[in-house]
């Protein structure tokens, strides 16, 4: 099966994906699906999108040779795809520009979104301000406490930040609350932040994020005259990973490496290893690999990185794993924090704690490779939001 041709018309990537939602949501999503596929082929819309990528987000983002880190470890050349340099500080703005444009073309006046680490919330609030829309952001109480700087940014941008206290008060629960609100407000637009959820969200988010890998592929060929041996990205829901991986899918010689959050350890039951340990089930209106308890219920996930704290994963990543196109590894909280500090002190770049998971494994991989080999690590966001939390929790 040609991966680039997926999903099918019903939103499936192999056995994963689809749309399993109540009738009132089904109707809204059918309209959205039709509108998206119309705009996807519309040259004027694509010109608008890429003009905003350039003029508003600051694309293309730099592909940076991490010379100090490369010299320190003595292995393959490490390149960082600098999504942390985008406006708002992460890859999330790519998707929010795209979906914000869709909402604008649909005549919507309000955006609803969920957020974990707060980067998607900030990007959504940013686009709402740009288009003059009202904005509600649902965020788990635990994440609000850990990501205070982003909460302040959302509020300053004019968003209404709504605290979610049910469940474990994290990203899964924020998604639940946002979907519930969306059903009750049909005149709003639900701007889902990751490559998850019912069709058409996984394909929309991937399409708006694939600019990451498209740029990186062109950039590495220009800089090195060859493709990388591997592309490494952290995975929670999977938007930055699918963005980084998609352009390289046809290049079978390029290993695509998904780094999941092992939290307190693989055997601790305090992790977010949906690809590594998940089973096929439904979550948030789609079918994918999901953490389950012994009774078959969705289990709690955990990661010190709020943006990776989700018990499921995007359906396309589940498909890529089962077709063996994806290599799945992990990093613990401690390993991610160590990488967070190492990149900061070695390159003067403070990464998001989510991105630090990818940095950890990328460094391990590069150490084992030849000096003329090349790898790309997707630096999905900057770590300003994490500095207080990491310092107070892990370094003090």
TrEMBL record:
Entry's Gene Ontology molecular function annotations: tryptophan synthase activity
GO cellular component, one term: cytoplasm
CDD domains associated with the record: Trp-synth_B (cd06446)
Modified residues annotated as N6-(pyridoxal phosphate)lysine in this record: 92
Sequence ranges assigned to domain Tryptophan synthase beta chain-like PALP in this UniProt record: 57-381
SUPFAM superfamilies, sorted: Tryptophan synthase beta subunit-like PLP-dependent enzymes
Pathway note: Amino-acid biosynthesis; L-tryptophan biosynthesis; L-tryptophan from chorismate: step 5/5
Regions annotated as coiled coil: none
Catalytic activity: (1S,2R)-1-C-(indol-3-yl)glycerol 3-phosphate + L-serine = D-glyceraldehyde 3-phosphate + L-tryptophan + H2O
Described function: The beta subunit is responsible for the synthesis of L-tryptophan from indole and L-serine.
Designated name of the protein: Tryptophan synthase beta chain
Organism: Candidatus Roizmanbacteria bacterium RIFOXYD1_FULL_38_12
Lineage of source species: Bacteria, Candidatus Roizmaniibacteriota
